[in-house]
Amino acid sequence: MGQDDDPTRAIRTPGTARPPVPGIPPGGRPAQPVGGAGTPVGQVPQQASSSASRGRVYGKPRAGSSPVRPLRGGGGEGGGGGDRTVVEGRPRKPRRIGRTVAKVVAGLLVLLIIAAIAMYFMINSKLRPVESLSDYSGRPAATPGQDWLLVGSDSREGLTRAQRKKLATGKAVGKRTDTMMLLHIPDGDGRPTLVSLPRDSYVPIEGHGSDKLNAAYAFGGPVLLAKTVERVTGIRIDHYMEIGFGGFVGIVDAIGGVNICVKQNIKDPKAGINLKKGCQDMDGGTALGYVRTRATGAIPDFERTQRQRQFFSAVVQKAASPGTLLNPFTSVPLGLSAAESVAVDPGSGLFDLLSVGLAMKDGPIATGVPTSGFPTINGASVVKWDTAKANRLFEALAQDKPAPKDTITK
């Protein structure tokens, strides 16, 4: 097209109207389709920046020359799919409740872990160490598994006069062994074995000839007692634990009592109990009387050892149950009570005590030492072991094997 053919090339004086352009109505928009980037057919395209500055955004004029930036969060083409949404034309930040909750939960878990660790070290520091295990010539070699000597003494330490009267513990001073048990925890998945050692067992005691087993404690305390047990069983003791009457009651009460099935009616004023036959919950005082009474059985001490094994298993299983360990209202009082009332060898700690509970959660194999008779020696009735069966029982445990069935007694 030549210069003379373009009406827009005419020279106009100020104030004169623009000549009409073919295809564009006066004062109106192009009637025909646009070509290119919005340029009417027949016109020279303007520069992109000039077109952008005069463009329209959502039907409204906009100022400036910068490119139009689409809102994020829209699902359409070019929306970008960002992390913002549009409500009534305004951008809004997304809700972050999930992230906040996760942070709060993580913070609480950290605090709980720190509190648990602090409580562990505090309780562990309160355990009372007692010298009990010693090296000596001829001591049995280390054996597989863990072997505990569990001792219940008749110590009234820590009990007031009113408590002694209420618990019917008597006025005896000092302390003697009231209960002795050997607990073997195997290295594998087998059940532990809990063996009652009758306190009247007639055994050799270094420096004192032969006497009742509990005399070893009276002569030389925990050290001589542990040494005597090691020599007569051939098993090396790894851990020693001792508890008195007061601690016994405190631990039972800390776990909210224990359920015991009583085989027969038992009324014993000396032990402070009057129990009916059947399963029942016992508090610390009642349980103490139950394991101490001698009012039943033709051989009272054998009935007694059976009740002691029954009670110990019930207490440990409840103490190690998730309902006790995961509840701070029971686990913390239990830990504090145990720490203040249980004495252990210096090499044992709270972790070792926890391992006992976890190992016994399914119940141990409970037995007594096989016996052969109850002679009277030096005016005292004693318990004689069946040497052959007793040796096979302890040899099996020393080798971390199950106890032979014919050595297990009620």
Question: Could you walk me through the main structural features you see in this protein, from its secondary elements to its overall organization?
Answer:
- Helices cover 35% and strands 20% of the residues.
- With 410 residues, the protein is an alpha+beta fold.
- The strands form nine sheets. The chain has a seven-stranded mixed β-sheet, sandwiched between helices. A two-stranded antiparallel ribbon has the order 1-2. Strands 3-4 form a two-stranded antiparallel sheet.
- The relative contact order is 0.11.
Task: Describe how the helices and strands are arranged.
Layout lengths: L33 E2 L3 E2 L7 H6 L2 E2 L2 E2 L23 E3 L2 E3 L4 H30 L1 E2 L16 E8 L7 H7 L9 E9 L7 E4 L5 E3 L5 E3 H21 L5 E5 L1 H10 L3 E5 L3 E3 L4 E3 L2 E5 L1 H9 L7 H20 L2 H4 L2 H14 E3 L5 H10 L5 E4 L2 E3 L2 E2 L2 E2 L2 E2 L1 H12 L12
Concise summary:
With 410 residues, the chain is of the alpha+beta class. It is 35% helix and 20% strand.
Keywords:
single chain; 410 residues; alpha+beta; seven-stranded mixed beta sheet; two-stranded antiparallel ribbon; 11 helices; 35% helix; elongated
Q: Helical percent range? A: 25-40%
Could you give a short account of the major beta sheet? 7 strands, mixed
Radius of gyration: 44 Å
Low-confidence stretches: 7-13, 31-39, 44-55, 74-83
Straight-line N-to-C gap: 123 Å
Apparent shape: elongated
